[in-house]
Write a structure and sequence with these properties.
Elements: H1 2-27, E1 36-44, H2 51-54, H3 59-71, E2 78-86, H4 91-104, E3 108-111, H5 114-127, E4 131-133, E5 147-149, H6 154-168, E6 177-183, H7 186-189, H8 192-202, E7 205-212, H9 220-229, E8 233-237, H10 241-253, E9 261-264, H11 278-281, E10 285-286, H12 299-311, H13 325-348, H14 355-362, E11 367-368, E12 376-377
Parallel strand pairs: 1-2, 1-3, 4-5, 6-7, 6-8, 8-9, 9-10
Antiparallel strand pairs: 11-12
Length: 379
């Protein structure tokens, strides 16, 4: 009897245990689904030498492109998280930021300038993380490197100006003389060898090549050398308008402003940010690779205006959210990066997303229109 009672009790306990299992299982909360986050590294120069080119709204203006991509569901159930740092025009800080972001797991890098682009180019190739720049030097066009660009190179823009000068030169007794005032940086030096070769080919005399700091204090010696060279044209090859502001003011002080035809070598639209010296800039020629912000009928300008109106408070003095050509350049590269990430996700899924997958996707982009900002043709 004793053993039979024991058997019955044990069976009862087992039965209670089996009955309780579904109840416990039903009450246990499910673990939340792991958020799918895609990390993009962004090296910004917002307090350094090109601060004038950044604009009034700074990072929120530039990062609005990724905010738009996330909110419109470009990446399905994943989202991009931009890891950004201000490297302030310092190469060592750019490299340090790159290493930090690489360790955080970024799958593509966005350098704001060619200073940071050239600094991290070999690192991205080594680590198999692609880089998408919004401006470029000849060095950054090396096809063996994992660097892509949304823009013509500084050489291509400089030689375009040389051809324009040659085509419009009327004096048949001599060649036109073209000088440069450029930053002592890749933007001012990287194109010189190729530009000299092209100038010789088409019959244009070039030089001297004057170099000034990113933020110069006095450019009088440079302007006097330009005068001595008897240059007809002076091309600004500057990362931001602050240097041009000083050069033009010094030329006025020396009475030499009208001695030369001044030409902005790139991104002339963001010169509007220079305060107080519009008079000196009036009449300056310039090359621009993107629509001017006032071209409100341009589809890219309309798109930027609509997006920034959604995310940023309008500037009452301009009657629209502020942006310049630089924002167009940045956004074009941003949307190329986003399109590559989207294609990589479509092909391999989130679990297989890495730098190599994004690089392979970048290689598939042949024709792409980033919301009318400009047409992109990869070759």
């Amino acid at each position: 009897m004793k053993s039979r009672k024991t058997f019955i009790v044990m069976m009862f306990v087992v039965a209670l245990t089996l009955i309780a299992l579904p109840v416990l299982s039903a009450c246990t909360p499910k673990a939340p689904a792991k958020e799918k986050v895609i990390k993009v590294g962004y090296l910004m120069d917002i307090t350094g030498p090109i601060a004038f080119a950044v604009g009034k709204n700074g990072p929120p203006q530039y990062l609005a492109s990724y905010r738009y991509m996330n909110e419109t569901g470009l990446f399905g159930d994943a989202r991009i998280d931009v890891q950004w740092e201000d490297y302030s025009g310092n190469v060592d800080r750019a490299v340090a930021a790159y290493k930090k972001m690489k360790d955080a797991g970024v799958v593509v890098f966005r350098p704001m300038t060619t200073i940071s682009g050239e600094a991290i180019q070999p690192l991205g190739t080594r680590d198999q993380i692609p880089i998408v720049g919004n401006s470029t030097t000849d060095k950054l066009l090396d096809p063996t490197q994992w660097h892509y660009t949304a823009s013509p190179s500084y050489t291509q823009m400089f030689t375009t100006i040389l051809k324009w000068i040659k085509d419009n030169w009327k004096d048949t007794s001599r060649k036109p003389r073209v000088a440069q005032v450029g930053n002592d940086a890749p933007i001012g030096r990287g194109h010189i060898a190729a530009s000299e070769a092209y100038a010789k080919e088409i019959g244009v005399d070039v030089g001297p090549w004057e170099f000034i700091p990113m933020i110069p204090l006095d450019t009088t010696p440079n302007i006097l050398r330009l005068k001595d060279s008897k240059a007809d044209f002076v091309i600004f090859q500057l990362a931001g308008p602050a240097g041009a502001d000083v050069v033009l003011r010094d030329a006025v002080k020396l009475g030499l402003l009208n001695n030369f035809t001044w030409i902005a070598g790139l991104q002339v639209a963001h010169w509007e940010q220079v305060p107080g010296h519009i008079k000196e800039m009036d009449g300056i020629y310039g090359i621009n690779e993107a629509p001017y912000p006032d071209e409100q009928d341009n589809p890219g300008v309309k798109f930027m205006t609509e997006v920034l109106s959604r995310y940023l408070a309008p500037d009452p003095t301009l009657k629209r959210p502020y942006f310049g050509t630089v924002t167009n350049l940045m956004w074009t590269a941003d949307f190329i990066s986003g399109e590559a990430v989207r294609r990589a996700l479509d092909k391999g899924g989130y679990d297989k997303l890495n730098g190599k997958a994004v690089k392979d996707a970048l290689d598939t982009i042949k024709d792409y229109d980033p919301h009318g900002l400009r047409a992109i043709l990869f070759t």
